[in-house]
Amino acid sequence: MNEAAAVMRLTELGLTSYEAKAYVALTRRDSSTAAQTARLSNVPRQRIYDVLGTLVEKGLASTRPGDVVKYRATPPAQALDGLIARRRQELEGLERSAAETIAQLEPAYQAGQAQTDPLEYIEVLRDRRAINERFFELQENIKDEILVFTKPPYATPAQENPEGLEVASTHRARSLYEYSAFDDHAFAEGVRRFIAAGEDARFVPELPLKLVIIDEAIVMFGLEDPVAGSAGLTMMVVDHPALAHTLKVSFDALWDQGLTFDEAANAVGFKSAAA
Q1: Which three-class secondary structure state does DSSP give residue 109?
Q2: N or C: which end of the chain has fewer CB within 10 A?
Q3: How is domain 1-113 classified at the CATH fold level?
Q4: Model confidence over 66-93: pLDDT tens digits?
Q5: For 137-210, where are the E strands, in sequence order?
Q6: Which CATH superfamily is domain 122-268 in?
Q7: How many CB atoms lie within 10 A of CB 35?
Q8: What are the domain boundaries of the chain?
Q9: pTM listed for this prediction
């Protein structure tokens, strides 16, 4: 007899491993004392009385009174029928409990399905770290095109933005900068590297706000506190193609007024550090 397999099947029917081992050991003799059963089953002596008592309660064993109590296994067919009947009762109880729980939860679930957040397509971000993380997340998911109003203060200066360079080299990228970009030579040279990587750039005297338009579907724009200025910046992320299309029209209108890098550099008297 493969005792290990029998023990495993008995545990699948709801016995503990000690109970299964003790029952298998009892089947090997007409009857056994607790000590004999512990030795045959490798169940610890300090646990064997509790284990045998549980087998008796479950109908898998019976006792023979005497000077020393002996235990006898219930015939396997009868014992396993009892285990299966017990499991059926447990399953029926679980089914009743599940039905009651479904009845309790279903009304709330159905009511919840009817509730929608009218502004679920809008995110509001105020923490600068969260703003940067969300921008990089949007940038990583660009499929075709990114349009940007790049306006100070810069979260990540052009000369310190390798992720942006990668986007400029693999997607259609257009950026509008303010003339103030030439106030910082390092930043201006960073913009030159973006252009070399593939970005199309134009320059205007001033931009109305920070703005990113991705795939004409998602926009990210900044709103400054009228009193606190840039110190009170709030960024909005809106997943709304109609708004994205409308803002792209505004982007294109400013774009048509913009100067190229060299034209803007001449206009503001910028000279490259390498010149």
Answers
A1: helix
A2: C
A3: Arc Repressor Mutant, subunit A (1.10.10)
A4: 888 999 999 999 999 998 998 899 889 9
A5: 145-150, 172-178, 200-204
A6: Endonuclease Chain A (3.30.870.10)
A7: 11
A8: 1-113, 122-268
A9: 0.56
